[in-house]
Amino acid sequence: MKLLVDTQLLIWAANYELPDTAIPYFTDNENTLYFSSASIWEIVIKRNLNRRDFQIDPTMFYGGLLNNGYIELGITSQHAFLVAHLPSIHKDPFDRILIAQAKAEGMMFLSADYMVSQYPHVIYV
Q1: Between 1.10.3720.10, 3.90.190.20, 1.25.40.20, 3.40.50.1010, what CATH number should domain 2-124 receive?
Q2: How far apart, in Å, are the Cα atoms of 79 and each of 38, 76, 85, 100?
Q3: Which of 24, 36, 93, 104 has a CA 20 to 30 Å removed from the CA of 8?
Q4: What's this model's pTM, rounded to 2 decimal places?
Q5: Confidence (pLDDT) at 64
Q6: pLDDT at res. 95
């Protein structure tokens, strides 16, 4: 299964802090794990805002994702246009582009955010 992983789960995975319910998705060799360039952007922005939960070096984090076999998914105009058609369940622009990307690419979006879980194509862990 192709999984686009939410930014917070990526950070937890890097820090070995995944919830038990998420671990099988990360360890199943049948799954292909993707990260979005939007996640790197989110980390840069929120780190610069001194958010405690985003105090990770984005350059090292990016390299770690690639070294661990994650595949980068860039943002396209198609992804951006799709955001306009998402229900207004969640207002976070980073989550909305990630959800749109997963939907557009035929992936499941893996998230630990209950609000996000109300969208289709989301696996809540």
Answers
A1: 3.40.50.1010
A2: 11, 5, 10, 6
A3: 104
A4: 0.96
A5: 98
A6: 97
